[in-house]
Design goal:
The protein is an all-alpha fold and 431 residues long. The longest helix is centred in the first third of the chain and has 40 residues.
């Protein structure tokens, strides 16, 4: 019986991983189709505005997610057979996100008023904010908890593919800049509707709205995870915002955005493994599978880094054209982030988080995030603000995160083995 359960769990993990890769592939193929078009049609200034607002919206998206992908996914994974409990978990997350929406809108309003580049493009910011908040209500954590990402993958490909077609059809000049966030908002609305229909049809669960207190409790429960995720987001988004302030030009923001996008594309190769492994580890505590994935992933990430460094110039020429060619050196400088981020991801939530060491995951993330913010700020204050310096800080930040998480995992190894043994004994009793 135990062997059969392990085979079923491994099979579910493999299927989920396959669809996760399909989703991640679509997330980068579709934007990579539109980026070369937008860089040319919107001009460097227009694309720089878009990149700058997107960096702010990235922070908004992480605030709206608020750790629910970890806490709510864990609840769904542990209570798959209790439909009412899953439905109430969905409702509690919806209440929590409504509360967050109010705070986020106020925060973005104040930021827009304070930052000239945002204030000059306030309408763009407002449309982008609406689409980002709307998209946050997609219940991805339900599909993650059930380890079945088919609907999410199909939804994304169709909605964003349709959005790409609209961009090619409707965006023809810098004057069409506002059309871009409007299309994103439209596709987000489609995604929300489609996703809730998918949870009902695929898993038989709908939405059961609990009390407002349940939403508040959900916020408090996820606060520690949110602190970790927000700190992690500062790695890219805070630096991107700082580029706009320190270097004061949309062109520099555009170059940084293109280089960061290319590096992030390589990092995204690990996201499906991270997401699938987290759900698997919560449900099965499979240390053997974890060790195999880490061993293979280290070799793969080093190869990916070498390939990215070798192809940096043709890649940026393809995406942005000759106007952005000088940004290829940034890609080479940031390639260490690729293999370092694999280690920081795997030793974070899939290992430490799955075994309940949430405070430790958060502490390592916050510390590395603080390091990033302090280093970038000092660079700006003391007049050493160059793109190369900021790229170096980005690599150092990821190194701090990876080393600290591996160190904590080593320190907690005896507790992890004990909990793994207790879990195995409990499973035998239940059988």
């Amino acid at each position: 019986m135990a062997s059969q359960m392990n085979e079923e769990a491994a099979s579910r993990f493999s299927r989920n991983l396959l669809f996760q890769y399909g989703l991640q592939l679509a997330k980068y193929i579709i934007p990579f189709i539109t980026i070369p078009y937008l860089t040319r049609v919107l001009s460097a200034d227009g694309f720089g505005v878009r990149a700058y607002v997107l960096s702010v919206m990235t922070i908004v998206a992480v605030v709206m997610e608020f750790g629910f992908m970890q806490t709510a996914t864990k609840k769904v994974a542990e209570r798959r057979d209790d439909r009412r409990s899953v439905e109430e978990a969905i409702g509690a997350v919806i209440w929590a996100k409504i509360f967050l929406s109010l705070a986020v809108c106020l925060g973005v309003f104040l930021l827009t008023w304070a930052v000239p580049l945002l204030r000059e493009n306030a309408v763009y910011v407002g449309i982008a904010l609406f689409g980002t908040v709307l998209n946050s209500f997609v219940p991805d954590f339900v599909f993650m908890g059930y380890e079945d990402m088919r609907i999410i993958t199909l939804r994304y490909v169709v909605a964003k593919g349709f959005g790409a077609l609209l961009i090619f059809a409707l965006v023809r000049s810098p004057e069409d800049l506002l059309v871009v966030p409007a299309i994103d908002a439209l596709t987000s609305g489609v995604a929300v509707i489609w996703s809730y229909l998918g949870t009902k049809r695929t898993f038989g669960v709908g939405v059961r709205m609990p009390s407002l207190k349940a939403g508040w409790d959900e916020l408090k429960e996820s606060a520690l995870v949110a602190a970790s995720n927000l700190s992690s987001t500062f790695f890219n988004s805070y630096t991107a915002v700082a580029v706009g302030i320190i270097l004061s030009g949309p062109y520099d923001v555009a170059i940084w955005s293109l280089a960061s996008t290319v590096v992030s594309a390589c990092q995204s190769l690990f996201t499906p493994v991270y997401n699938s492994l987290y759900a698997y580890m919560v449900a099965n505590r499979g240390l053997m599978l974890f060790k195999k994935i880490v061993s293979v992933g280290i070799a793969g990430s080093i190869i990916a880094r070498a390939g990215l460094a070798a192809l940096s110039e043709p890649v940026i020429l393809l995406l942005g054209g000759a106007e952005y060619a000088q940004g290829s050196y940034l890609i080479s400088l940031m390639t260490p982030v690729v293999w370092l981020s694999f280690l920081s991801l795997m030793f974070g939530w899939p290992l430490l988080g799955a075994f309940g060491f949430i405070k430790e995951v958060t502490a390592t993330t916050v510390c590395s995030g603080v390091f990033n913010v302090v280093a970038v700020t000092l660079i700006g204050l003391f007049g050493f603000g160059t793109l190369a310096a900021l790229a170096t800080v980005r690599c150092a930040t990821e190194a701090v995160l990876a080393c600290s998480r591996m160190g904590v995992s080593l320190a907690k190894r005896h507790e992890i083995m004990r909990m793994r043994s207790d879990f195995a004994e409990e499973r035998k009793v239940n059988e």
